Amino acid sequence: METFNIPATPSLMKEFLRQMGGTAVIDGGLATELELHGAELNDPLWSAKCLLTSPHLIRSVHLDYLEAGADIIITASYQATIQGFEAKGFSREQSENLLKKSVDIALEARRIYYERCSKSSSGGTGDGRILKNRPILVAASVGSYGAYLADGSEYSGCYGEAMTVNALKEFHRRRVQVLAEAGPDIIAFETVPNKIEAQAFAELLEEEHIKIPAWLTFNSKDGVNVVSGDSLLQCASIAESCKQVVAVGINCTPPRFIHDLILAIKKVTTKPIVIYPNSGERYDADRKEWVENTGVSDEDFVSYVNKWCEIGASLVGGCCRTTPNTIKAIYRALSDRSPAAPGQK
Q1: Which has the minimum average pLDDT: 21-25, 39-43, 136-140?
Q2: How far apart are CA 43 and CA 288, in angstroms?
Q3: Is residue 135 over pLDDT 60?
Q4: Is the CA virtual torsion 256, 158, 266, 239 positive or negative?
Q5: CA gap 49, 43 in Å, rounded
């Protein structure tokens, strides 16, 4: 039932948003939901561990988000790197197959969702599920080098003096190629903590002639700069100058900072702005856990959404510690804000 023709070109995001009526919903946190489904993630591979042990749980979480109204689902490859899998004893071929599997699972979830839509005439089943035939994008997640280190350094951006743009390109190169070849609609470079990694991603897309469009999202802990202290304006300008980057924005950042960050990004980009904050909870990198009761409620989170869209955000979802309930609330907030695109049910 995949009847929506959105070409994988630099115009993909603008065409997608046109079909969606101007705004779209991204999914929410993956790891926390996997744990609620019974996954054990205390591992350097984090949510990518489920690619090995329980791919059906990943598919279930993707479906939960689609049925909560998400228009974009992000693959379980944030922490999945060839180097990380090889450190666990997997061969290069096995490691690459696990990366591909992350995309395959999301594509399968979308197919199942469309089948469920075709069997439902009401747009839902009376149990709160949203079953609405609409364009859905699969975004292949590429986490930062700091995510691979599994020491919290994607929240500091401190990679050391020895780390260079070229070294980062070599780290990410094959991973990006494999994910692009697996057939997602877009590549999501997420939680980019510093300028050199943004530069590495932009150069990789051009050097490797990656045909799949991409977005770049940065994270901030002060509402002004990215977490390393590098200028957000400089980082967003790198994204703006790369033709394969079709959206730029912020993820895994407390909601209270998002307003000012959108206004800053708007100064340097004409591309759609993508926003998916965390719940506002604080992450303890030493203990590798989120500090309870430091975030905002779903109601408070969603209260920001219309304002973010008014000042320039086009794509809104959630990151760590947000849930399908958060996403459903965002879906409803955006549905109230703008009518469905012409021709959409």
Answers
A1: 39-43
A2: 10
A3: yes
A4: negative
A5: 7
For residue 332, the tally of other CB atoms under 10 A from its CB is 16
All structural domains of the chain: 23-146+162-336 (3.20.20.330)
Cα separation of 121 and 41, whole Å?
A: 38
Q: Which two tokens stand for residue 319?
A: 């990151």
Check whether 320 is labelled as a binding-site residue: yes
Q: Measure Cα distances from 75 to 65, 68, 125, 220, 232 in Å.
A: 12, 17, 26, 22, 26
Whether 242 has a binding-site annotation, put simply, is no
What are residue 128's phi and psi, to 5 degrees? 90, -5
Spatial distance between the Cα atoms of 130 and 66, rounded to a whole number of angstroms = 8
Of 238, 320, 311, 308, the closest CA to residue 277 belongs to 320
For 262-296, the pLDDT digits (tens) are: 999 999 999 999 999 987 656 555 655 545 544 56
| Residues 63-88: tens digit of each pLDDT | 999 999 999 999 999 989 999 999 98
- Token pair of 142, please? 């590429």
> Which DSSP letter does residue 238 get?
H
Q: What is the pTM of this model?
A: 0.92
Q: What one-character-per-residue DSSP string does 175-237 give?
A: HHHHHHHT--SEEEEEEE-SHHHHHHHHHHHHHTT--S-EEEEE--SSSSB-TTS-BHHHHHH
**Percentage of residues of the chain with pLDDT beyond 90:** 70
Whether the CB-CB separation of 201 and 214 falls below 8 Å is answered with: yes
Average pLDDT, the chain: 89
> Is 252 annotated among the ligand-binding residues?
yes
40 in Cβ contact with 12 (< 8 Å): no
- The answer to whether the beta carbons of residues 277 and 254 sit under 8 Å apart is yes
Q: Tell the burial category of 336 from Cβ atoms under 10 Å away from its Cβ (0-12, 13-18, 19+).
A: exposed
Residues paired with residue 80 on neighbouring β-strands, in sequence order? none
Contact 77, 340 (CB under 8 A): no
Q: CA-to-CA distance for 200 and 75, rounded, in angstroms? A: 21
